[in-house]
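Reviewers of the previous submission asked for a worked example of the structure-prediction workflow described in the proposal, so we include one complete record here. The input consisted solely of the amino acid sequence. No template or homolog information was supplied to the procedure at any stage.
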Amino acid sequence: MGSVDAAKMRWYAANASYFRVATSGGELAAYLVGFRPGTGYTSPNYLWFCEHYEDFAYVDRVAVAPFARRMGLASRLYDDFAAAMPDSVDIMTCEVNVRPSNASSMHFHRRLGFEQVGSLESEDGEKEVALLLRSL
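From that input alone, the workflow returned the following structure tokens.
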């Protein structure tokens, strides 16, 4: 799963608009962390969406343990996040690495109906993310 230390996980649990884990066989199998506008979160990707959209459900990170891949957990977490939003929230946003490429994540998000609405570069052009959006 993603390399997030315990302190950061505690911060997410205390501050995220949405924080869910999924288990399989009693083991942590997946998690999703999401935010709405108006939090103190300072991620450049999140802030880009804050500047461009009034309201949204932002997926900051989703991770699935290797043993739990292809079980539909990530899709179910995305559906649960969408269902947890008020009716006034009509878009979900996220980002996917394009440099270095994360082709499997891009394929997953395209399959869920996400479309690219922007991009951001960092680390002097060494990294780039596609900023994605889908209607709820």
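The chain has a mean pLDDT of 94. We consider this example representative of the routine output the project will generate in years two and three.
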